Amino acid sequence: MQERQHDRARYFRELATTSRKYFIPYIEKFKPLHPGLEVLEIGCGDGGNLLPFSEAGCNTTGVDMAEGRIKDAIRFFHEAKAKGTFIASDIFRLKEWEHRFDIVLCHDVLEHIHDKENFMKGLRRYITDNGIVFMSFPAWQMPFGGHQQICQNRLLSHLPFIHLLPRSIYRFLLRKGGEKANCIDELLDIKTTRITIEHFERLCARTNLSIIDRQLYFINPHYETKFGLKPRKLSPIIGRIPGIRNAFTTSCFYILANKSL
After folding, report:
1. Are 244 and 238 in contact (CB under 8 A)?
2. FRET pair for 196, CA 20 to 30 Å: which of 64, 115, 218, 245?
C-alpha cells in the first residue's frame, strides 16, 4: 500500500491542495464561489476536497458510506478550524437534501458504483435548478484505473496496468502478493464496475444530464501533489479517438447540468 493510504492526515492535505489548485478554478468557470453557496460531496471520504470550499465561505456537506472516513473528516475539519457537515449514509436516503445544492462533487466515486444509471438519475435530484455537478474519474484502461495502489504489497501497489489482466490471473497475482480477502474483493469489484469515457458519456445522454465541459488529463492534477509531476491535458487528437484515449487519460473532469437548462 502506498504510504499516503496509511497516513490519512497527509492524504487529506494532499486532496485539499489539489482541490484548491485545480478543482475550484475549473468549477469557477461555470459557478463562481461565494459565501453561503451550498456544496455537497458524495463519497467525500476524509473530506479533503471540501476544505478549500469551506475556506471560501461555502456551506460544505459531505456524505460517505464509510463511518470511519466520516469520523476522520470531522476530526480533520476541526483541526483545520473549518466548518463542514459530515454524515455517514447512503446519499439517496437523505431525501430532505434534494434540490438544495449549487455544486455537487463526485470525485473518484463513479468507478465503484454498480448501478451507474440509477446513480446518475438520482444525482440530478440533489442540485438546484441552476446547479452543476463536478464529476471526475480515472478512465478504466489507464495505468492505475483499477485502484491497485490500495494493495498492501508495495510492488503490487506500484504496478501499472495489472488490473487489465484476465480476472483469474489478476486474482492469482493478488493472492500470491499476500493481499487480504477484503482487498482482493474490492479490486475485483472495481474490475466489474469499471467506467470508460464512452460509457460515461452514454450514461449522461440516457439520464438527461448535459455535458457542459470536459477536460481529459494525460497527467492527473493530483499527481503534482503526490509525485511532483506537472499536470498535462490529453492531446486533442488522442482525445477524439474512442477507446485509445482511455489508456492515456489518468483523470476525466466533467461539468454537468440538468438538460432542462
Report:
1. yes
2. 64
